[in-house]
Each structure stands twice: as structure tokens, then as C-alpha cells.
Amino acid sequence: MSWLQKLLPPKIKRAEGTRKSVPEGLWSKCPSCEAVLYATDLAQNLNVCPKCGHHHRLKARERLDFLLDPEGRDEIGAEVVPMDALKFKDSRRYPERLAAANEESGETDAMVVMQGAIKTLPVVVACFEFDFMAGSMGSVVGERFVRGVNAAVEHQLPFICFTASGGARMQEGLLSLMQMSKTTAATTRLARHKLPFITVLTDPTMGGVSASFAFVGDVVMAEPGALIGFAGPRVIEQTVRETLPEGFQRSEFLLEKGAIDMIVDRREMRDRLASVLTLLLRLPAV
Amino acid sequence: MKTTFLEFEQPIAELEGKIEQLRFVQDDSAVDISDEIGRLESKSVALLKEVYSKLTPWQIATVARHPQRPYTFDYIENIFTDFVELHGDRAYADDLAIVGGLARFNGQSCMVIGHQKGRDTKEKIQRNFGMPRPEGYRKALRLMRLAEKYGVPIFTFIDTPGAYPGIGAEERGQSEAIGRNLYEMAEIKVPLISTIIGEGGSGGALAIAAGDIVMMMQYSTYSVISPEGCASILWKSAERAPDAAETLGITASRLKTLGLVDRVVTEPLGGAHREPRVAAQSLKKALQDALRQLQDLSADELVERRYERLMSFGKFKEIAAH
């Protein structure tokens, strides 16, 4: 602890520790380059640090907002909401956790699906909301994903999924594990109709989401510096009792190992998606 | 082989120890104590029945992990004939944590794939305690494809703490390997019958378990996370594993009620390890029934039925769209 931190009154220290990546306050500090950033600048730059390019997390709706053309957006699956099938209880009951997550994120579950267009190309996009119980995948995420795929099949549209998830949702027990099979099986229908399926892995993409549909996309993209893997770094460290190599499970590492097609800067995402889609669909460039 | 007793079985262990002693005494004794032995034996059976009639989910998890529990090879030996093991993923290695090969089931050709744990220390290490690396899943997929090519049904047996969380496994695409299997299994054009025989540990189990019919042995478990893992995250203490086991709903009976498992296969009194052959016979009967249900379906019907089954999973509410 530096002398400055020691001098700070405890209240200020706490406030600093619990800061989210997008604070309500005016200023925030980039965790990567430690530059002090004006919040509006950061938001205007799609939550990418203007100094070092570090990709801060982005809420599902904010992502959809910059990604999709303003006209003709239509949300899919909002009518599907969670329930407590197992009467799950740890230190808190599941419904309490759901209510808290709703409060924190403004969403009813960890996924938002929208039909819309990227540079005039009609698409269906599913986005994980990490602020809702760490983007964990339970029955609602699975069902909204499938309804999104079904809409894509019905209207013959490409399907894109942005992942940001800690994995399966424990509070739904085996029901959440089954969502891995359910979502992945649904994507076989896209393939049957030759509809492009693109996944974009953002920070973090772990466990049950990583180990289901994330890597079966026709094209697999990742944002720079995202943590992507099956097991969490701490679990691996405890199992193998070794220090993990520098950059382990980051996008750049995955690209080097051949696990993903490309790393795409968020600010170029719209262009890159449009370009890949038109190429796959044999359409003229937009 | 001497039975290893679990913690909650200690009263049974004491009683059976006493019976053993009496038998030993009787051998070189003039007094006939067989009546007494018989009385104790029936008492022991009654006690075993009582203990096993009210096992907690956590106790069931310990039975599922019993060191003498029958593994895939034990079931292969007792259920199938002409087993020919096939090795390797054709890309990197042969993962011994998943075994598989061609065999006959009641004379009919089939493919058998399963997790395999080791019995002694050396074998446990060789088989990585039944925790597969990507190569294991890729071998399993290769064998499923082979089965599909020749139109033979596939039986999978699940018994793993989970996919291996290692550096190499991540480097070689553990996630991709599991996800790929889930994708391909949804389209496999032959009957796929999966049975959880011991531990059904999360994605590492699911990667060979997404069958047309999924069954569980009575004292096996199937869970999204191990009770210890869940407890250490949600209660910040692995000691609370029994509570986690209770609330996660990991037992065969609970999962049958939830509609996630099609059939529970009854085990002999005191668990499959007490009478592995009896357990195998009861599993064989269940596999026969399952195969009968599926074998007249066309490839398209099979795939469609499997798809509908997967799409039905999930519990949620629907509200009026806004």
C-alpha cells in the first residue's frame, strides 16, 4: 500500500475499490494504462480507453445501440423471464439474487436479443449482459438465444452472438447445464439453412458459455485482451500448481493457438461484421 | 475384494466386521454359532436397507465416487461382447480418460464410449482420474462419426469429476472440443443412449451425454458444478458441500422429477460396488429397453426427436410482451 493510500480516509478507499468500469462519476481510471479518463470521453469511445485501447466492459444494450442501425430494431424474447425452479438457496435465495441483479443491471436476465440491421444488412444479434449475475447462462438465456435463432431461421437472417459470461448459472443446477446443449443444438438449424453464425467473444467468456456455442461459429471473433477459456485461471493454478504463462487465456493467446479467427477492435466491429457477412452471403460490399 | 466403507456406513462396517470375526471363530470351534451369525446377518441387511433408504444427496455423491464403484470397463465386460478398443484422436494423442470401441450388444454391432477412472495409483494417474483433455472428446467424436457411418447405435457411459482444468488442455481448445461435441451430437444419425454411471461432472460429462435417452444409475450424480466447487463459491467454504449437494439437485430421483433424465436404473442394495454383476444386468435390461424405443426410428426422426428433447429443457415464465 502506498503512503498516499494509507493517508486516504477509509471511506474514500472503499469507494475506489468498488468502482465499476463505468462509474456514475465524472472521472475513472483505466485499469490497464492508469490514465484518468473523463467518463463522457470513454463512453463516446464505446468504452475503449482513448489512451491505450483497453476494452472496458460494455452493457448489452449499449453494445446493441452502437452496433445496430437506428431504424427497425425489434427485441426478441423479452417475454421470457426467470423463475426459481429448484427453490435454490445458498447464503441468499435465488429470487433475491435475481431481484438484486435486476436492480443492478436494469435487465430481467443476462441476455438481450434484437433483430435489426448492421449497415443495412438485416441480422439477429444476441448479447450477454455481464452485469446480470456475471452473464451466467440459465434457462432464460438459453430460451432467448433459441428464440433469436428461430427468428433468424424464419426470416432467413444471419445470427450473431456477443458473449460475456462467467459460465453456467449454478442457481439453476442441471437445468443450466442443459442450456449448453440446447443453445448449441439450435445453431445446427442455422447451418441447415446456410445462415451465417458469427460469435464475438468479449471479456470474459468462460465455462459453460465458452464450452458450448462460442467456438462453433462459422467465424469466431474476439475483442482485444478478453479472458476466454474453459476453466478459470485460479482453478487451473490450484490444479496444476504452476504459475500460468503471461497472457494465458487472453484473446491474443487464443489467436496464436489457432482457437479464433481474428481479434477485432470494438470501434471497427460494425465494419468488420458487415464485411464478413457480405462476403459469406455473396452480397456486394456495404 | 473387501468392501471399503464410507463414513455414513460405519455402523454397517462394525456389524459386518463382527460377523466376519464370528465366522473366523466358528471355523475352529466346537460350538455351533451359525444361528447367531444368521441373526446378525439379517440385522446387517436390515441396517443397510435402512441407511440406504434415506441417503442424503451428499451421501449419494460419496457412493457415486466410491473407489470400488464399477467403471465403464466393468460394464463393458458384463454387458457387451467382442469389445475392440479403438484409440486416439488422430491429431494429438490418445486420452486414456475416455475409452471407446466397437462391441456387440446382444449380438448386434454397436459403439461403446465412456469415461474411465483408474483403480490403483498408477492407473489413476494414467487416466487422469477420469478427467479428459480435448483429445478425449475428439476421440469420442471420431468414434461417434464412425458409428454413424456404419449405422450402429452408440452407448455412452459417463463418470467424470469434470473436464481437466490444465494449461495444455486450454491451449489445445478444451472449450472448442466440448462445444463441438454438443454440436455434432445434435446431428448424429444413429441412436445415442447415455448413462450416468458415477459422477456426471458438468460440461466434461455433458460432452458425451447429450443422448436420445439419458439414464442414471440410482446412486450416480449429475451436476453443473461439484458440490464442493459450488459451496466454495456461494458459501465461501467447501465444508458446506452437503448443503450445496442438497440445493443443486444432483441425484437421479430429483433429476427424473425435473424431467432432465428419462430413467433411473436400480442398483443392488448398498450400491453397485457391492454387486457389480447384478448392477450390470439391471443396466443391460434398461439399455435394451432404450434401444428398442429408438431402433425403428429413421435417421431424420431420431435427429428431430433429439432436437425437440433439447429444446424442451429450461424452466422460465412468460409475461405479456411489452
Please give a structural write-up.
The complex is a heterodimer of chains A (286) and B (322). Chain A is 37% helix and 19% strand. Chain A has helices at residues 3-7, 10-17, 39-44, 60-67, 94-105, 139-155, 173-192, 207-210, 233-240, 251-257, 269-280, and strands at 27-29, 36-38, 74-76, 80-82, 111-118, 121-128, 159-165, 197-206, 219-222, 228-229, 262-263. In chain A, the strands form 2 sheets. In chain A, strands 3, 5, 6, 7, 8, 9, 10 and 11 form an 8-stranded mixed beta sheet that branches. In chain A, 46% of the residues are buried. Chain B has 322 residues and is of the alpha/beta class. Chain B is built from 14 helices and 9 strands. Chain B has helices at residues 10-27, 34-53, 57-64, 72-79, 121-126, 134-149, 167-171, 174-185, 202-206, 227-234, 241-248, 252-257, 276-294, 299-311, and strands spanning 81-85, 98-105, 108-115, 154-160, 192-201, 213-217, 221-223, 263-265, 316-318. In chain B, strands 1, 2, 3, 4, 5, 6, 7 and 8 form an 8-stranded mixed beta sheet that branches. The longest helix of chain B has 20 residues, at 34-53. The termini of chain B are far apart. At the A-B interface, strand 4, helix 6, helix 7, helix 8 and strand 10 of A face helix 7, helix 8, helix 9, helix 10 and helix 11 of B.
Provide a short characterization of the protein structure:
Chain A is α/β, with parallel strands linked by helices and 286 residues long. Chain A is built from eleven helices and eleven strands. In chain A, α6 (139-155) links the parallel β6 and β7 (159-165).
